[in-house]
Each structure stands twice: as structure tokens, then as C-alpha cells.
Amino acid sequence: METIHAAVATRLVPPRCRRHRPGRPSPVPSPPPREREILALLEQSMSNKRIALVLNLSVDTVKWNLRQIYAKLNVSRRNDAILVARSAAQRPG
């Protein structure tokens, strides 16, 4: 699977996991592996059914994971999630 850009990864990680502790570097934690996999397949314009087949999941599980991704990216549609992921990947840094 492709790597997720840091800006998207930051949005996929719950805020409580992103707390910065003074005096320590602020690492960008990685989003859950399943969400990275699903987002990568979503960027390839795969349907929910196809994603389920590729990852050996139920379609309902894929839908649940997509809802989690949409909430973390603050979007409501798959096209918006793809646009956010692609625009973050194009940003330098």
C-alpha cells in the first residue's frame, strides 16, 4: 500500500493521540493500518464491494471504516475524501 501524506495522517489520528507534551518532539502518529489501506484503495476509485473483496472484509465493515475516515477528514463524501488526500499529498513537506 502507498504511504499516506503526513497532513492526512494527522487528520486520521484521534485528537487525544496528537497531544503535544512540552519539551518533547511532536511526532505525527500513523493512522490505523486498516484506514490507510482503505484510503489507498479509495484513491484508486474502488467501490465498497471491491475494497471488501480485496481486504477480505464485509461491505458493512468497509462502510463503517469509511465513515470513520470521513469524520476524521471532516468530509461527507468519498470524492471529498479523495480530494483531501490528494491535495495533502501534493503539498510540499
Give a quick precis of the structure.
With 93 residues, the chain is an all-alpha fold.
Please name the defining characteristics of this protein.
93 residues; mainly alpha; Arc Repressor Mutant, subunit A
3D structure, described in words:
With 93 residues, the chain is mainly alpha-helical. It has a single domain (6-13, 31-90), classed as Arc Repressor Mutant, subunit A (Orthogonal Bundle). The chain has five helices and no strands. The chain is globular and about 35 Å long.
Question: How does the SSE layout of this entry go?
Answer:
Layout lengths: L5 H7 L20 H11 L4 H8 L3 H15 L4 H13 L3
Helix pairs in contact: 2-4, 3-4
Total number of helical segments? 5
- Arithmetic mean pLDDT: 78
- CATH level 4 superfamily: Winged helix-like DNA-binding domain superfamily/Winged helix DNA-binding domain
* Structural class computed from helices and strand pairing: mainly alpha
Q: Whole-number radius of gyration?
A: 14 Å
Count every beta strand, where a strand is a DSSP E run of 2 or more residues: 0
**What's the overall geometry?**
globular
Proportion in helices: 55-70%
Low-pLDDT sequence parts = 25-29
- End-to-end C-alpha gap: 20 Å
CATH level-two architecture: Orthogonal Bundle
The major β-sheet equals:
none
What portion of the residues fall into strands of 2 or more residues? under 5%
